[in-house]
Amino acid sequence: MERKILVTIFNEHNQDRSEPVKSIYPDGIHAAIAQAFHGYDDFEVTIATQDMPSHGLSEEVLAATDVLIWWSHIDNAAFDDTVASRICYHVVNRGMGFIALHSSIFSKPWQRVLGIYYDAGLWGRFRTMPKGEKERVWVINPGHPITYGINECIEIPADEMYGEPQLIPEPDQTVFLSWWEGGDVCRSGNVYYRGRGKLFQFTPGHETFPILYQKEIHQVLRNAAKWMAPSPDMIIPTTGDGHLCGDARENLNHRL
User: ThuA-like domain location, by residue (predicted)?
Assistant: First the structure.
């Protein structure tokens, strides 16, 4: 029997406690994301929220996590710096996957692991219409495992517009490109590699629309989790003190 993929879902869990978001996600945004994995025996899900001790992301939890899925928005600045650094460690050194949904790209761990910083107003174009805008998330890398089971595009009836230019690092792979009803476009599914870890930026998911219930979004999340989980065959060489071995492979007596 294959080992289960251990998915931890982090949700800020602030806006979904009150209206208008509570009516859309009455059990929390994390519950809608978790539905992507219900009924699939190859996944095991843990929930973490910002109001938990260590934000629910203790060393024990992170050490057991294969893929971390993240949703946050208004409380990014209040996130603990030590926990953010711990997340980066597990991505870079252990190969933990990290999926950032929608405004999670402004979170501390995402920006730290990519080596960037930007405020929402300086990052790129965005537009929030009261009734949202139609979005078509086009598959532009159809051979990529994240796109498996997805047709030519995912149609989202209403979302907040994220548009180009996005002042983001050049992705290692771009998987999705979104078109918006107002005429904008956006690189909406981007893959980055950092150390042993894979990162995936997926822009859909504004909190006032029921996007995170869509079956196609759930398919993308399952695909991404399967592909991003670190292989049990990955070798992480260390010495007892946690450092890579610095012993010479050739004789260096002449350098003494």
Answer: 7-227
